[in-house]
Give the backbone structure.
Amino acid sequence: MQTATVETSKSKVVKTACGMCYIGCGVNVRLEDGVVAGIEGNPDNPQNRGMMCAKGKAGFMNLYNPNRVKVPLKRTNPNKGIDVDPGWQEISWEEAIDTIVANLERIRNTPKQLWVQAWEVVGDGMFWLSSFGSAFGSCHVNVASSPTCGKVVHPVEFFSGGGFHQQPDLHYAQFCMLVGTQFGVAARSSMNHHMLDMAEARARGMKLVVVDPVGGYAAAKANEWIPIRPGTDGAMALSMLHVLLNELHIYDKEFLKNKTNAPYLVGADGRYLRDAASNEPLIYDAADGRAKAHNDPSLSDPAITGSYEAQGKPGRPSFELLREHVAKYTPEQTEKITTIPAATVRRLAKEFGEAARIGETITIDGVEVPYRPVCVDWARGTQGHKHGFHNCWLLKLLNIVVGSVNVPGGILSTGASGKFPHHWWPEGGVDGMLEHGGQIMPIAHPKAFPGRTPTKPVRMDVGELFPLAAHYHTLLPITVENPSAFGLREQDCIEVLLHAPVNSMLGAFGDLKKVEKLYQSLKFMAGFAVEINENNLFDDIILPFPSALERYDFMPGMGAYMIAPCGQDDFYWHVRQPVVELPPGMRHPQDILQEIADRLGILPDLYRLLNHTYAVKAEYELKPGKRYPVAEVVDRMTRSWFGNDRGLKWFQENGVIRHPRSVEEAYIGPFLDARIPVYLEHFLQRGEELKKVIGQLGLEWDFSDYTPMFEWQLSPSHKALQKGEYDLLAVHFKLPFVYGAYGNENPWINELCERTNAYNILLNETVGKAKGLRDGDEVWLESPVAKAKAVVKLTQCIHPETVGVGGHFGHWAPGMPIAKGKGVSFNSLLPTDLDHIDMISTALDHCVEVKIYKRSENAAGPTAKLHAV
């Protein structure tokens, strides 16, 4: 199929999608004599509205990277290790695929011995790889890479908002608090789109408050930056909830009564009181003075405070329990935890509560809906801690108690609903609670409500022991040390890994020595590569991966379907088409996976899963018995979704399709037929079930997070500082020009990093001078598991107990000569064991105790840039 273009006598422009991060902005790529000469944003695309970030502008440098992998490679050195030369040798495609097929055939009768790491930021590869793993029969298929990102926000959002992620509604918000995130400024979903929304919101008077240990890009744009001790966000939230509920008595009573489980009666054991006949949770109806099932049509005035008797048992509404619980966390108490002054917390709570404008409505396009122009937003920074689930959940509760969920000005749920090109919508389930989040693609996502029944593990990632988690790969370096301790047998252990072109070695785990042992335990590794990174150094076979300017993708980024701009911004869809031809001999990954599947005899199952994943209508489905060129696959999908007249050729010529969203689609809160929680009653049952399984295994386990309401606890890093061996807490922060990107080896991005001191670590100026350090000093940054060479940047824009490590650096792979030896790999500093795992979400604790000292103080230090301690 020909690539459609806009041409002149000297140049042509191709409409496609950027591939420098997982969003996939719409771009127009200009070619001169077949060479990419520039990339501009597509002004017709609602995703980025003609704007681009530095990553996207630099994208074609990746295309012309002289160190790109363009042919299959095989390892000739049987030894594997962090500093071991694989001895690469170029091979034919036939030999590469023969080798992969032979190793998969070897484990065909034990398919769970295959591990598929499917996450890739460019496009369809994630869905093809994950479908391939499932067609093979493996349970070890993960479509997430980070040990923190998405661990909490997605499962929480599905049961409290209905979508995949959350976003502040910058169109109507008047007060926005960002906690541990740089949304709308330097990171997160649809960044180019939201940067303009954030600027316009601030210009019209919205107050932006940033609570973060690092005074970074978001703090620079805020009305107020509030430094906080790392990992204590939940304590601040508990205190704000206390002020709102018990001191100011600001909360949305009508919303809590009718749209949450705030009125559900809870007995002395912490469980709902239930109707004897239906087993549904009971509510006390103040209108006629008796308890009724939550779904009783006669229910008219649910009580959310007080004490009542139902079916002979005493009970109190869950909201009453919440009020009582948070009363223990006064601002004076939490000041000792967070270092935020009590007066500041009270003021923030008051400003937040008053800005919510409880009781007000707004009419949009003739539809009257609640108006709550206030929101708290959080993301990876809050998730990445021991007890991270509750750390985040408490912040979500701030939005819930004032009713600012999925209404104008509040916190919105991304990708939750739509009517075009087909209908998808969140739905209620168990106990009348929101259970089934809406997704445009019918892909099952593990949920934190109602969760799963724990069982003895048969999975190497022991997902069975984390019944409320969304994904579990963070456990693999822990379980591989002693599989039998988790009840795993030899046949349960993973032997083969197939992976996308991401750098899981540095990005998906922590302690490098443990990741090294994990990879050494495997009998065969194969994966795709853009350039040979640290992960590829353990591969037996490397397959070249096309750049985004050489690819076809129906799904060119998550920005279109899971984390698209919220509110009344138009729904949009675009596809990725090649700007230039593949280098001679290179192949599209979809073609390769079809061939491997065909030779394994699983091609029909691969097609069946792909047809389901992409919601392909029957007449356009991929049929067994043939292999499809990737252009035809994309053409079938576009015509299935948008009609025969809008196939691949239409998108190549027009770039993007857009469709207006109704008020009902944009603000689903008032139209949602389900309740959202303020009380996590189901945590009790899952915890009790898990205790039985853990008891049978004889493991030591922390069950303290299996509670409906969280009691504040210190994390391991806080305890380590109390012991005195370490004196600082290291945290990670994002940079807008390297965030979520194939950018470390890009020379333009490298120049930006060097000019902005992005490779340096941040240390409070006062603290640094007390240690005898000066700006630009070379230092050791040492954690319990590793130490790294670093250059220190002294600044007042960081909490005095904190070291800030930005970006995703610290490379040593020979295939990345530009990035080699620059910056610090933050994840490599992180201890990896059960004591540093959030026992609900499996997030790895990203708050680590460290010490800093001049390199000259330990001249006999490691020769590598990062070394085990």
